Amino acid sequence: MKMYDVIGIGLGPSNLSLAALLEESTGLQALFFEEKESFTWHPGLLLEETTLQVPFMADLVTMANPRSEYTFLNYLKETGKLYLFFSYNEFTIPRAEYNQYLTWAANKLGNIRYSSKAVNVELDEKGYIVTVFNAKTKTYIQYFAHHIVMGTGQVPNVPVHVNDEWRDRVFPALRYAFKREELLNLNHITVVGSGQSAAEIFFDLMEHQNSHSFTVEWITRSPALRELETTKFRLEMFTPAYVQYFEELSFEKRKEGLAYFYQLRNGINPETLDKIYRKLYHRSLSSNSIRASIRLHTELESIEHGFILNLKHLEEERSLSTRTDAVILATGLKPNIPHWFHENFSHLIEWESDQHYKVGRDYSLSFKEPNPHHFFILTGLDQSHGTASTNLKLSVFRNQLIINKLAGYELFKIESTTSFQSFSSAVQGDDSFQKDMEVVRDVSYY
Ligand SMILES: Cc1cc2nc3c(=O)[nH]c(=O)nc-3n(C[C@H](O)[C@H](O)[C@H](O)COP(=O)(O)OP(=O)(O)OC[C@H]3O[C@@H](n4cnc5c(N)ncnc54)[C@H](O)[C@@H]3O)c2cc1C
């Protein structure tokens, strides 16, 4: 019976980063399971000209080890694209290229098993028993590990009931690119949602209206199409300093903070909004109808056969109905928590509320009884670590803390100055900048 030091469940950017960092910097025996048959990152939303919302430095490893073999820059070098990127001269990379980069890195790593779904995880006194179903061989195999890292990501949040037989016409945004061709010959398409995906799909459909006659409508609960906040000071909310500050607040204060910073995470890229507005304006010059509309303040309450959309204007509190031929639900994502987690671990761990498990600073679950076998979790962290917790910018930081815990010492040193602003009344770090700030504060009392 082989005992791994750590088993990772799910292989998105979070656990892929962990796999790369572990392989290069530790002798720990690690194995990662991914249920898909090969690596892909959100293939249904790799639309033309869409970009990541984080700089390329938020790759799998740079923030821990810029000299790593797995940096985005090394990917460019190995694939002969370094000069093209040099002249491209932008920090945000195409989403499709991010997927290519991740696939390149995943193909270099030997400790990943695809078509392998973790269907059960249990804890005994020796560690974790992970039962994996292999979709190719149709077999169940058990693996053993001292520690677990659950990186199962997120699944679409579907706010209304959708009948099974509607699924070709009413589906989550994550399937958009696969279904688009089937939609283009319909008469009316509705996009529901308030964030970046809704905006991108709305724009993409508008582009396809040049050669098709459908009308597209965008329905959003938002009172305004909100821009993603990208001011430099706001970006400091996506730093270790802020996450560590947030994580120490009381549960109630964290809940309040989350509502406040919602927009930071869920706004729409200003360029996308500008492109949409520009297109609408140019269309308004021609005698043809615009064939694209946006309803604000409007919540989708239910869908009936046909498809009739029952809507509610949230401010006027008025109900209304419209007819459409297809609905794309860009209504967000929610943590993907496997059933076995609830069944096997709910009673063993501490909870902050009915729905929120208690997670330590190092992303390990808090067990009621002393347990030397850590269970790290990389999804559903908003309540514990804040709106930035699962942002790609911080996935390397999360993994540094996890690896330090696994190694038993500070293998990765976290930079002491990660923001100019101080969030806590306590002094953060011992660096000269923070010290100077304290001196200035003291002096100002006199
Ligand atoms: C289109 C899109 C663009 C985004 N762009 C950004 C961005 O620019 N910046 C940003 O910060 N965030 C972005 N996000 C949000 C978030 O960062 C990404 O969703 C990111 O992929 C999360 O990474 P992850 O590894 O935690 O989870 P995921 O990427 O969701 O990966 C989880 C993996 O686990 C696998 N899995 C699940 N259960 C099991 C199981 N039981 N056994 C085996 N495998 C399993 C799944 O198949 C999946 O491959 C974006 C999200 C979307 C949808």
Automatic annotation (TrEMBL):
Pathway: Siderophore biosynthesis. It is an enzyme of class 1 (oxidoreductase). It catalyses: L-lysine + NADPH + O2 = N(6)-hydroxy-L-lysine + NADP(+) + H2O. The keyword NADP applies. Pfam families: Lys_Orn_oxgnase. Its cofactor is FAD. GO terms for molecular function: L-lysine 6-monooxygenase (NADPH) activity. The keyword Heme does not apply. Keywords: FAD, Flavoprotein, Monooxygenase, NADP, Oxidoreductase. Its EC number is 1.14.13.59. Belongs to the lysine N(6)-hydroxylase/L-ornithine N(5)-oxygenase family. This is L-lysine N6-monooxygenase MbtG.
